[in-house]
Amino acid sequence: MTRVIAVHEPGGPEVLRSEDWPVAAPGPGQARIRQTAIGLNFIDTYQRSGLYPLPMPFVAGNEAAGIVEAVGEGVSEVKVGDRVCYQGTPGAYAEERLVPAAKLVPIPDGVEDRVAAAVLLKGLTAYYLLFKTWPVQKGETILWHAAAGGTGLIATQWAHALGATVIGTAGSPEKVALALRHGCDHAIDYKKEDFPARVKELTGGRGVDVVYDGVGKATFEGSLDCLRPRGLLASFGNASGVVSVPDLGILARKGSLFVTRPTGVHYFSRREDLLEGARALFEAVQSGAIKVEINRTFALEDAAAAHRALEGRETTGSVVLVP
């Protein structure tokens, strides 16, 4: 048996239950992982609430690091004793679990387990957005919402290292200061300033080349107003609610704009793409281009409190659960 945090019905953080579940021997293509650190992500809250439905009951969480304890038939990707991490595989809030071996990524020497668990999902999100969705070029100007969040702090540092001018938004003076220390050339307190007007001021009226928006409903139209003609809005999250676009004509009126709603499920469906992104991410971490901020740590048993803190905008950087 292993301790897990399970969800039996959709709802708020209170539906997260600490339970003992059995762990089977790994089958063909599987590995059993003893987990040492678990990453907290907004997608965990979407699945818990029912916004992204999963079959009930399920074990919450999508990202973790740990050690391979056993492997099933036909597994060649990893071996017993390897330090590994994974993302995008529900069931992470557990002391031990089975994971498809093809989803596992080796943790390089010199990278701690907690760092790997804190950075992989958020870092790969930053990777596909910055390198694939809109490949950022030196000299371009980008806007990143929630720049002091877990994904934001990683992405803004990476974009700065690529030579972009980085504008970030955040929700308090403390978060603005944090964003400015992590790659943002300019940071806007959206609670005090009209962020589209400020972006236009900072860009001399031109607008930015691309907006990366994980906030969703609250920032969608304002994000469109920040773009230059034929710019791109990459909407990759729903922290403030789901975006709906009933009138596509708005994109024409605001400058023949492009909008996309990407997800890592499609960018990393092939193992070679997953490993390519992970290599780029860990190289950026090891070089110092990305400094990972783990500002809150919770015991696995306190997952509900961690969800409340994340949804209440009480966190900055990454949050890790420890089994």
Q: Can you give keywords for this protein?
A:
NADPH binding, alpha/beta, Quinone oxidoreductase, Rossmann fold, 323 residues, 2 domains, Quinone Oxidoreductase, Chain A, domain 1, seven-stranded mixed beta sheet, six-stranded parallel beta sheet, ER
Could you outline the blueprint of secondary structure elements for this entry?
Elements: E1 2-7, E2 16-21, E3 30-39, H1 42-49, E4 58-59, E5 63-71, E6 83-87, E7 96-100, E8 105-106, H2 113-133, E9 141-144, H3 150-161, E10 165-170, H4 173-180, E11 186-189, H5 195-202, E12 208-213, H6 220-226, E13 227-235, H7 249-253, E14 258-260, H8 264-267, H9 271-287, E15 294-299, H10 303-311, E16 318-322
Parallel strand pairs: 9-10, 9-12, 10-11, 12-13, 13-14, 15-16
Antiparallel strand pairs: 1-2, 1-4, 3-5, 3-7, 3-16, 5-6, 6-8
Helix pairs in contact: 2-3, 2-9, 5-6
